[in-house]
Specification:
The protein contains 9 helices and 6 strands. By secondary structure, it is α/β, with parallel strands linked by helices. Helix 1 crosses helix 9. It is globular, with a radius of gyration of 16 Å. This is 3'-5' exonuclease.
Length: 190
Amino acid sequence: MLELIKVKYDQDIKKQLEKRFIAFDVETTGLNPKEERIIELGAVLFENGQAVQKFNTLVNAEVEVSEFISNLTHITNEMLENQPREEKAYKMFQEFMKEALQGEVLVCAHNAQFDMSFLKKTFDRLQLTGKICYVDTLQLSRKYIHGPYNYKQGTIAHYLHIKNENAHRAYDDAYVCGQILNHIVKGSFQ
């Protein structure tokens, strides 16, 4: 079982995030975590505001990827054929996320409920355990960044002059999410 704890953003959490956090993102075959699967995992470890380590893997979840999802993510069924199956992919992911899965390093995601619900469903299905404490950059953006016409990750990134060459790919979106969190932690929104 994966235990998920959304933490309240306060001065203590801000200090932790200034030092170290992992930004996280997934690409999936659809929107419903009960029926759909994760096909890409991306995570970036940030220390003192800098990306210092990354994790990225496609996942052969042994399901068909629709044309709509392929057009959105540029992930095709052919690309997934020779990628690690879930058991192997999540073993590698657990190794990268070891401290985060022990609740020792905070995790961030944009619209975290989406990513975390997929992660929890997969961990539970594969009988993996862990505890993740996380913040949601979508909610933090709504609270601290005033001016964008919406709070989609791409809009916030553009507003903060953060480039994303590969939107809707897990590593790139995780990296951008981490950059957004850095802006929020520093209080630099212009």
